Amino acid sequence: MNSPLSFAWFQGNVSGLLQVSFLLGLGLLVLKVAQMYVRRQRLLGDFQNFPGPPSHWLYGNTLEFPVEEELPKMASLAEKFPCAFPRWLTGSWNLLQVYDPEYMKLILSKRDPKSHDVYKFLIPWIGKGLLVLNGSDWFRHRRLLTPAFHSDILKPYVGLMADSARVMLDKWEKLSYQPLSLEISEHVSLMTLDSLMKCAFSHQSNCQMDRHSNLYIQAVHDLSYLLSSRMRNAFYHNDVLYWFSSAGRRTREAAQRAHQYTDQVIQRRRQQLEQEGGLEAISRKRHLDFLDILLCARTEGGDSLLDEELRAEVDTFMFEGHDTTASGISWLLYALATHPEHQQKCREEIRGVLGDGTSITWDHLGQLPYTTMCIKEALRLYPPVPSIGRDIKETITFPDGRILRAGNSVSLHIYALHHNPRVWENPEVFNPFRFSPENLTLQHSHAFLPFSAGSRNCIGQKFAMNEMKVVLALTLLLFELKPDTMKPPLPISKLVLKSKNGIHLWLKRLH
């Protein structure tokens, strides 16, 4: 039987434990605040020569950059603060926003690693592939992947891209008779997924007609959305909070589905290559795809990619080739819809090369100079990847004498660079003649960076440009494009450049 004395003893001990816990928690909080203060003071010192907008000691500039206003805000600040300014994501975390071509050239000439605080979010899905690797591992993977983007491998992809584009255009023809404008970005996204499945796996998917027809397609679609959402939610940047949330659980499940599919395809293809006698025997039966090349790639020392590395590179190819290319195509169609005179000139050039478009080949793509100029101008106005990050490992002295100390991070803001009036005259005007041969000689080497530059430039840029040409050519032969002026797009920066409210166009079937 418990006595009043023993109860009092128990109550006293519980009270003591609570007091100790409170003091420990208070101590940890004070320590954390002290760490944030020390870090903030260091950052203030490091960036004292880079003026920028005032920031709050706790939440930095967060409230000044709402999602729908972030890109125009960046463009206006780039005009106000020459070359670069520090943007505070919190009171103790900032990124130097860089949008000057000379600054870009200097940073991209080095081999600083990708920003860990940004690219770490991708690892649960795409693993440690070319996009997130650094140092000797990155160099080894780049050497092994380079043959997969040789022109001999890319040539047969043109027909596959055209097949996928025609499926989308057939859908659009049926929808063009409805009394509503068409939101195109979702259709384009499924089309690029369909195309990539053919180019990466030689798999004929039905995802454009039924997006749930393939578990891998659905997983890729889900992961793209979940990762974009995580990037925008500061609380989800903490791994513990995220992985215990419903969104974190859905991300794990989708990544597991994607990895299971990729692993199965890799094992089946490895057995097929062994049974049929390698690449030469396979190439006599069908085109070689991305996975074929990766499975047979060898370094000079005879090393090949491990299964886990293979999966990472295939998933990286699917991620980078799907969302970024879909963004580029969607904004390209919008840009030409809003500039009918350039749309018509492209159409006339395309007709002169392709006729009715029943056949489109690799050779045709090099005969479209005006169309290519328009594609580049759309990529300038609407770069699919608005910014890329680097962690600076060695102190940098910029051409104007300002110094960025090692240990800091930068955001190479491609959107702000492309809209910088110090770099581009009348940057908001769509003018494809910026990319005419005579004007290219006057352009700074790092003024136009839709695919980055330097040793870590986009390895798939030819693949992306080819697909943009194929889709644009086939689209303009069938449709006249007009914007829905009641639903103008709102560009927002997620993992790639998207529109908050979609991209709505009117499609008029040409006869």
From TrEMBL:
GO biological process: lipid metabolic process
Predominant cellular place of this UniProt entry's protein: endoplasmic reticulum
Oxidoreductase as UniProt keyword: yes
Compartments it resides in: Endoplasmic reticulum membrane
Top-rank lineage group of the source organism: Eukaryota
Residues annotated as binding heme: C458
Cofactor list: heme
A Pfam family recorded for this sequence: p450
GO molecular function: heme binding; iron ion binding; oxidoreductase activity, acting on paired donors, with incorporation or reduction of molecular oxygen, reduced flavin or flavoprotein as one donor, and incorporation of one atom of oxygen
Record keywords: Endoplasmic reticulum, Heme, Iron, Membrane, Metal-binding, Monooxygenase, Oxidoreductase
CDD domains given in the database record: CYP4B-like
Signal peptide span: none
GO terms under cellular component: endoplasmic reticulum membrane
Family under the similarity heading: Belongs to the cytochrome P450 family.
Protein name, entry field: Cytochrome P450 4A11-like
UniProt source species: Phascolarctos cinereus
